[in-house]
Give the backbone structure.
Amino acid sequence: MERERRALAHVFDRMVPDADQAAMAVEGTGRRTVGKEVFEDTQPRVKLAGTVVVDEAGKHFRLYSKSSMYAFCVDPVGRIEHLYWGKALPPNDDLTYLSFSNGPAKLQRAAVAKNHLRAKASAPVSTGKEALGSDEDNGIALLDSESSVDGGTVKNYSNMHTIEGTEKSLAGDTTTADTHMAMTSALGISNLQDLLDAGSVFRAQIDSSTSIKCPLPWENPRTFLGEWAGAATFGRPSKLLEFGEGSTGDYRSPSFDLRFQDGGRVCPFRYQSHRVVSGKQPMQHINGRLPELHANVENATTLVVTLVDEQSLLECDLVYTVFNDVDAIVRRVVVRNTTAHPILVQKLMSATVDFHTSNSYFLTHLSGSWANERRIVSKELSMGRVCIDSCRGTSSHQHNPFAALSVGQPQENDGEVYGMTLVYSGNFVAESDMCENGRVRLQMGINPNNFEWELKSNDIFESPECVLVFSDSGLTGMSHQFHSLFRHHLLPKQFKNTVCPVLINTWEAMYFDTTYANVMSLAKGAAKSGVEMLVVDDGWFGSRDDATSSLGDWYVCKKKLPEGLAKLAQDINDLGMHFGLWVEPELVSHKSRLYQKRPDWILHKPDVNKDSADGDFVLDLTRTDVQNYLIDCMSSVFESANIEYVKWDMNSHITEIYSDHAAPSAQGKVYHQYCMGLYQILNTLTSRFPRIRFETCCGGGGRFDAGMLQYSPQIWTSDNTDATSRLFIQHGTSLVYPPSCISAHISSVPNHQTLRISSFKFRFLVSLFGSLGLELNIATIEERECAELSMYLQLCKALSPIVHEGEFYRLWNPVDSKQLCAWMSYHQGRGEAVVAAFLLTSDPGHYLPRLRLKGLEPQSNYLVEEIIPSTAAHNVQTGRIEACPAPIYKLGKKSITASGRTLMSAGLPVHLIYDGDTAAFFIRDISRFM
Ligand code: DGJ
C-alpha cells in the first residue's frame, strides 16, 4: 500500500485530500479506474467516483461522479474558472493548460500583433502617443501603440497605473519585458490580467527620447502565456466561469444580481476558502423549506466554495454534491449577508455552466400547453439568449424546468449531452446565452422576473438545488442518469422500488357525480377486474356539483355520501381495494364557507378581480396561519377514513400576485414564499402520514418537476388521456422523469379529450410504461372487454417491476417519425425486458424499419415472446375486421431466440399494418438458466 502510495506520490501531492478522502482507495496496480473508466498505464488504480479532489497549491477542484468529471479552478484574481465537464479524466493529468483556451483565437491575435510590430519596427518614430488598455482592449496595445516601436525597441517608456483612485507610475529605461514585469509587480500588480481585472486603466506613454527593447511576446513563453500577449485577449466575455458577475465587463447573462444599499450592483465575488464534506450537506431551510436530493457518506461528497466580495464583504457559497452511483452533480448557491446593511437579491441562479465553443450547440427543452405537456423541442443556438421560463407560480404546462445542451443535434443514443433540471415547483428560468465567440452559458434558477428578496444583515438566502447530468450516450444516457438519481436520491424512501397499486380514478367515470351509489358500482366492477385501489376525485365535498364552488370546504357532501368517507373507505376496503381521495387545498372558491370567513387569506391585489362569483382564488401560502390551517384541515380529512392515497391537485396559475400580509418591500418574495409554504405543508403531511402515497397534479401536468417528486412518487401527467396524445406526452416526459413517476391511466373510447378511438391493447401498452391506472366507467364496457381488462391487469402486475426498476429506452421517436413510436424497459438484474411498438398512421406500401433493441447483453441469448397477439384480421374479401381462429403474430411467429447482439444490431421485423396497430414483446435472458 505504501509503495503504491509512493508510486502515486506526484498525484497525491497535488491532491490534498481536504477532508474525507478515505473514499479514494488505492486498489492494486496496473490500471487506474475513475468511475467506469479504466486508464491503461503503469499507475495503481484509484477509485474516485463520488469524491472531490482538491489541488491545494493550484486551487484546482475535480468532482468525480460515476464515470464523469467536473473541474474548475481559482483564477489569478480569485474568480472560479470553469475548466471541464465530461468523461472522467485521469487524476494526474494537469488541467491547468485548459485555462489557456479561455481566450478566443489568441494565437491569431498574437500573430496580428506580431505582424503589426514588425511593420512598426521599420516605421519612423513619433512622440507622445498613448495606448490605453482596458479589459475590452488588450495588453498588446502597449506594443501596438502608434509609432512606439523602433526595431523592437520602445522609446521613453512610462508605465502608469490607476488602481482604486491611486495613480502609480513607473518610468525609465526598461529594456526587456521581464524588466517591465518586474517593475509592474513592484507596484503591487502581479500581471496585466490583475490590473485589467481590477478595473483600472492601463496606460503606457511613449516618446522618442528613451529606448527600451521590447521582445516579441511569443519569443518568451512566459510573456506569451502571461502578461503581454495573452492577458488582455482573455477579455471577460470569453472566460468560462462558474458564477458570472454582471456590471464589471462580463456582458453575458449574470449568475446573480445583488443590489447594495447605495443602489450599486457591482459585486466581484472572489475565492475565499473551501471545504469538503462527506455525504451531502443538507440544505439550511433558513427562509423556508425546499426539497432536496439525499445521499449518505458512502455515495456522495460535497464541496463548498466560499466567495467574498472584497469591497462589501458579502459572502456566498457555491455548493456542489457529487454522487458515486450516477453521473450527476447537484448545485446550489447560498448568499450570506455579512455586511452591515440590507441587500436586495434580484437574481440568483442555482447553477451556471459556461461551455467552450463547439461547431454547433443545440438546446433541448420540454414545452407545450395544457393537455399537451412536455413535447421535446430542440433548436440550434446562435448568438444571443434563449429563455425558457415560468412566471405562473407553478413550474407550468408551458415549459418544464429542464434544459439540455448538446454538441450538435441531440441524438437518442450518441453524442454528448449536458442536462439540467431544477428541484423546484415555482417560477423558474433556464437561460442559454451564446456570446460573440460561440461560447454558451447555460444556467437555471428561480425566475428573477417578479422576484426580489431583501436580505438583512446576517441573513442567508439559499437557492433551490439544480441537478446537472452528463451523458456521452445521447439523450438516452441523460435520461438514465436523471431516472437513476431521482429513484435513488429523491423519491420518498418508503415508496422506493414499489409499484403503485393499480387504481381506478372516478374523474372521467363520473366527474362531479361522486355519489355513494356511483362510486360503489364502479368499485365493484373494478374489484372484479383486479383493480387494487379506488380514488374518489373531485366532487365529494361541500356542495361541489361543478367547478364553481366549495373549494376550501373540506367536509363531506352528505347529499352524495350520506355515511361519510369512513364508511365509503370501509366498503371499498371490504371489496379488497385500497381507498384514495382527491383534494385541492391551495385554492378557495368564491362560493365557499372558507372564503366567507377568511376573504383576507387569498393572494390578490386588493379590488382586482376579487368578486368574480364563479371564480376561485389561490390561498396565501406565504402566511404561516394559512399553512397551519391547511395542515390541520387536511390532517383531519386524512384521519377521517382509511385513506391510503391522496391526489393533490391545483387547477390554477397565480394571477394578481400580492399578499396583504406582506410589507410593500416584501412583495417580491411572494412567489418564492408561496412555493416554500407549499413545501412546508407537503413536508409536514407526508411525514405525518407516511403510509399515504401522494400523487401531485396541476390541472393535468402543470407542476411536473423534481421538486414535487420529493413528496409524491408519481405525478398526474396530463388531463389529456388519449393514448396517441399520451405517446407524445410520455415520450417527452421520459426525457427527465422515470416511468414510475408518470401517472398513466387507461381511459374510455371515444376519448373524452380527442374523441379518438384506439384499441384497448394500444391504451394498455401506453399506460404500462408509466404508473398504470384506469380512468373509465367499467360498468359501460362490454363483457369481452372486462375479460381483456383482467388479463391486462395481470400482465401489468408482472411487467411493471421491469418498467419501474429497469432502464427505459426510446426506440422509435414519434416526434421525428410522426408515424411510429416504440419503447423498451430492460431490467438488468432480472435479465428481462418489455417492449411495445405503436403505428400511429399507416402508410400502405411503406415498410417499417426493423425494431432494434437497446441495452441488452451482447453475448447473452434472449427469448423474445410476443405477448397479446392480435386475434382479429382484416378480411380482404369483405373489407371487415373479423375474429381469427389463430393468433396473429407481428413477428411472424410466437417467439424467436437470438443473441443480444443480433437483437440490437439486426433488430426485429415487426409487421404493424393499420392506424393504431401495436405489438408487445416480453424478452428474457435465457443464458442465465443454461
Ligand atoms: C384536474 C385534474 O388533472 C383532473 O384529473 C381532475 O382531478 C380535475 N382536475 C378535477 O377537478
Q: What stands out?
A: The radius of gyration is 32 Å. The pocket of DGJ is lined by residues 507, 537-538, 582, 649, 651, 697, 699-700, 716, 719 (CB under 6 Å). The first strand starts at residue 31 and ends at 34.
